[in-house]
Amino acid sequence: MQVELLHRPGNTAAKITLQPGQACTAESGSMIAMSGHMNLTTTTHKRSSGGLLKAAKRMLAGESLFLNHFQPGQKPCEVWL
What we know:
Strand order of the largest sheet: 1-2-7-4
Largest sheet: 4 strands, antiparallel
Oligomer: single chain
């Protein structure tokens, strides 16, 4: 995973390059753009842990209820947050 911060300081965007087999998780609504071959899954929990209770705690803390999981297909892909 390679992360570049662009357009600093006022409109900072993170350009994340993912290789096949890597994944990135971000809050719902944070994506600006993504490659066409990127797989996107939306859940209420992180990939390896959590559940509805943790999602409710995130929501009470002011974060999003849903999380987006980005994973490239057969070739490297980019997602902008």
